[in-house]
Amino acid sequence: MDQIDLGTGLDEQRQNRLHKLKALKANPYEETKASVSGKAADILARFDELEGQKVDIAGRLMSKRGMGKVSFSDLQDDSGRIQLFTKVDVLGEDLYADWLQLDIGDVVQVSGEIFRTNRGEISVRTENYTLLAKALRPLPEKFHGLTDVDTRYRKRYLDLIVNPDVKETFRKRSRIIRALREAMEERGFLEVETPILSTIASGATARPFITHHNALDLDLTLRIAPELYLKRLVVGGFTRVYEIGRNFRNEGMSVKHNPEFTMIEGYQAYTDYHGMMELMEYLIVAACDAVSDTRVIEYQGEEVNLNPPFARVSMVDMVKEVTGIDFTEERELSEFREAVRALGLEEKIDNMTKGELLFACFDEKCEPLLIQPTFVYGYPIENSPLAKQYKDNPAYTERLELFITGREFGNAYSELNDPFEQNRRFQDQLRRRQEGDLEANMPDNDYVEALEYGLPPTGGFGIGVDRLVMLLTDNSSIRDVLLFPTMRPLLKKNDSDAPEETPTDV
Predict the structure, then answer these.
(1) What is the pLDDT of residues 214-231, one digit of tens each?
(2) Sorting pLDDT into bands at 50, 70 and 90, what band is 7?
(3) Do residues 106 and 202 share a domain?
(4) Which of 102, 199, 397, 495 has a CA-to-CA distance to 458 between 20 and 30 Å?
C-alpha cells in the first residue's frame, strides 16, 4: 500500500484512516467477492435452529467495544444488525491486532459460529475475517435523527447506512410499485413503454424541459405525461394498457413537487370515468395492503380511512357548500368575479372565465379540506382539454381528481375521442400559449389523425406514485420518498458573488 498519497491538510480522522490503509499488508480494494451464507435478521429469527452452526456474513462495522483480549462489534448488513464476538485466542495475536485497527464504517466478511453470549446476546464468534473496503471517512456522529435534511438528501448513502427507517421507506416503495403492477395485470392490463423524448410536450398542462438532439439537429422535450401515446395504443387495438414511469415538469419545487416524478397511467377501452374511480380505489387498496395490515392508516397525526368506496362529490356542489357561490345560477360573469374576489382571490380574476373562476375557488378554498379519500368530478372544460364533455352540460367534463389529506393523488376522465372537438381544444390551448400560458397543451396533429381512425369510448387515469408512497409511509415531503431528489448545487464558499450554500427548496 506504499503508493497511497497521504497528502496534507486532511481532516485528522481521515488522515488516521489513510495511515491505517497504508499499513495494511493487503489492499482491501482488490477483493472481488465475499462468501455470504447468512443474514443478520435471519440468524436472529432462526437462532434456535442455527445455534452452533458456522456462517459467513458480510456487512459494515457500526460499533466497536472493548480493546483487551475480547472485543464486541455490531455488523450491519441489508437485513439488520448482529453482534460479533472476537477473542485473541480464536483469531491469534497478529490477526486480532489487525482486527482492533478496524474502524467503524469498514466493510468486512466474517466467518464464525452462531452462539449466545453469557449475557444472552445472539452473536457470531469471529473465527476469520477479511477486510473488503476501508472506510476512509467516519460516519457522522449522532447521524440518526439528523435534522439537517439537506445533508440527508444530498448524501442519501449516509442516510441509508445509519437510519433504518429510511431504508424501510424505500423497501415499502418497492412493494407498493410491485402491488400496483400486479393489480393492473390482474385486471388484464398490458404494461408498455412509451417515449420519454418527444417533439411535442402534450398530455398534461405543464411546462416542459427542452433538450437538443445533435445528430438530428432537433429540439426535443422530456415528456410531461405518456397519455397521448398510450391512447394511440388503444386506437391500435390494445384495449387495456398502462405504464409506470418517470415524467418531467419544469415547474416549482416544494414538499409536494419534484421536477422528475413517477406516475402510473392506464387506459381501458369501453368504460368511462366511473370505471376509473373503481379501478383507482382498487389500486390504492392494493398498495395499502402491500405495506400495512390495516386500511385505516395514520398520516401526519390524522387518521385516514382507505376502505372503499371513497366519497364522491361534484366540484360545483362542493364549491357551493364551502363558499356559498352557486355556479349553476344564471348570472353575469362580472357578478361571479366579484363574488370570487370577495373570498380574497385576486390574481387574474378579471381575465377568468366562469369555469376558471369555479376551479380557482375549488383549488384555494376546498382542496385543503379533503382529508378523507374523495373523488371530485365535473371539472370545467377550460381546465380539461382531453376530457369528454357531459352530454347535457357541455361546459363541464367527465373528469375527476382523487384527493387525500388535502392533496391531489390522481386524475381520471372519460377520454375525448371526437377528433374535431379535440382539434378545437388544441387550438384553444395554442391560443393560450400565445397569450403567455407556458403550461398550456401543445397541439398534436398526429394524435388528432389517430383519433380519426377511431378511438373507442375509453376511460383513463393517472396516479402519482410518489405521493402514494408518501401517504403509505407517513412522510410529509416528496424528497423523503425519492432516493435521489433534485437538489440545487451547493456553491463554493469562496464564491464572493453567492451565498456559501444554497439550501433545499421547500
Answers:
(1) 999 999 999 999 999 999
(2) low
(3) no
(4) 199
Q: Domain count of the chain?
A: 2
Residue in 397, 500, 495, 481 with CA at minimum distance from that of residue 173: 481
Mean pLDDT across the chain = 92
Domain shared by 169 and 275, yes or no: yes
- Quick check: 85 and 125 in contact, CB under 8 A? yes
**How many angstroms separate the first and last alpha carbons of the chain?**
46
Question: 104, 139 in Cβ contact below 8 A?
Answer: yes
Residue 490 inside a domain? The answer is no
Q: Are 380 and 358 in contact (CB under 8 A)?
A: yes
Q: Are residues 175 and 121 in the same domain?
A: no
* 230-271 pLDDT tens trace: 999 999 999 999 999 999 999 888 888 999 999 999 999 999
**Do 129 and 27 share a structural domain?**
yes
Cell of 98: 489487525
Share of the chain above pLDDT 90, in %: 82
Q: At what angle do helices 465-473 and 273-291 cross, to 10 degrees?
A: 40
Q: Of the candidates 371, 426, 416, which has an alpha carbon nearest to the alpha carbon of residue 273? A: 416
DSSP per-residue string spanning 108-126: EEEEEEEEE-TT--EEEEE
Instruction: Tell which residue, 410, 472, 460, has the closest CA to residue 177.
Output: 472
Together in a domain, 173 and 298:
yes
Residue 235 lies in a domain: yes
Q: What is the CATH number of the domain that holds 38?
A: 2.40.50.140
Please indicate, yes or no, whether the overall pTM of this predicted structure exceeds 0.85: yes
Q: Which of 273, 271, 309 is nearest to 397 (CA)?
A: 273
What's the mean pLDDT in 103-120? Answer: 97
Count the Cβ atoms, other than its own, within 10 Å of residue 30: 6
236: Cβ contacts below 8 Å, ≥ 6 apart: none
C-alpha to C-alpha distance for 26 and 1, rounded to whole angstroms: 7
Angle, helix 445-452 to helix 419-434, in steps of 10 degrees: 170
Residues 6+ apart with CB under 8 A from 176: 287, 290, 291, 465, 468, 469, 472
Instruction: Name the amino acid, one letter, at 130.
Output: T
Residue with cell 440468524: 43
Q: What is the largest CA-CA distance in the chain?
A: 93
pLDDT band at 73 (very low <50, low <70, confident <90, very high): very high
Instruction: Name the residue with cell 463554493.
Output: 492
Model pLDDT, residue 506: 30
Mean pLDDT of 430-455: 89
Residue 313 lies in a domain: no
Domain that holds residue 96: 12-133
Report the CATH number at residue 297: 3.30.930.10
CA distance 2 to 6: 10
